[in-house]
């Protein structure tokens, strides 16, 4: 079995995005980002403002990552260094957004524990929010790793 090797100074296209770092992280980012989106959307959204930010971040990053995946898979980047820069900047923005959303979601979930004990917030929603927090931090970690590897690729261009 031949191993797929790639220079860090080139951008993959086609199915090579499924075998090269950092692009192999697109699919896990979509899975965990989608789980955050689904879990937050399936609970009682209170308070609205912080949970709205979490929804915005999860939907925005899911859609942009999917578009990024399609662009890279179709070879729309044409191996341009500008796309390597854009890849790094996008993942830096995604890390910043997801980290802020994860912290907010964890804070809101911790505060909901008080309401759960008082009986005003169903325990089932509390458990779903805890799962959303865990998946949100996993998505943050994936975007961070992708950002670091994209920065290394960008610097080697």
Plain-language structure description:
Mean pLDDT is 86; it is low at 1-6. The radius of gyration is 18 Å and the shape is elongated. It has 157 residues and is mainly α. α1 (26-41) runs antiparallel to α4. The protein contains four helices and no strands.
Can you give keywords for this protein?
single chain, 157 residues, mainly alpha, 4 helices, elongated, disordered N terminus
User: Which regions have little confidence, pLDDT < 50, spanning 5+ residues?
Assistant: 1-6
Distance between the termini: 29 Å
* Helix and strand pattern: HHHH
Structural class based on helices, strands and sheet pairing? mainly alpha
Overall mean pLDDT: 86
Q: β content, as a range?
A: under 5%
Radius of gyration from the CA trace? 18 Å
Can you give the helix content as a percent range?
Answer: over 70%
């Amino acid at each position: 079995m031949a191993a797929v090797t790639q220079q860090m100074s080139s951008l993959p296209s086609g199915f090579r995005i499924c075998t090269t770092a950092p692009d192999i992280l697109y699919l896990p980012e979509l899975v965990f980002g989608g789980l955050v989106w689904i879990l937050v959307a399936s609970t009682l959204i209170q308070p609205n403002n912080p949970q709205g930010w979490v929804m915005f971040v999860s939907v925005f990053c899911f859609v942009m990552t999917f578009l990024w995946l399609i662009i890279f898979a179709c070879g729309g980047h044409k191996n341009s260094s500008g796309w390597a820069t854009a890849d790094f900047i996008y993942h830096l923005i995604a890390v910043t957004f997801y980290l802020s959303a994860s912290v907010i979601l964890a804070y809101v979930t911790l505060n909901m524990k008080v309401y759960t004990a008082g009986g005003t917030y169903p325990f089932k929603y509390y458990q779903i929010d805890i799962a959303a927090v865990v998946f949100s931090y996993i998505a943050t970690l994936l975007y961070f790793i992708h950002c670091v590897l994209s920065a290394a690729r960008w610097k080697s261009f």
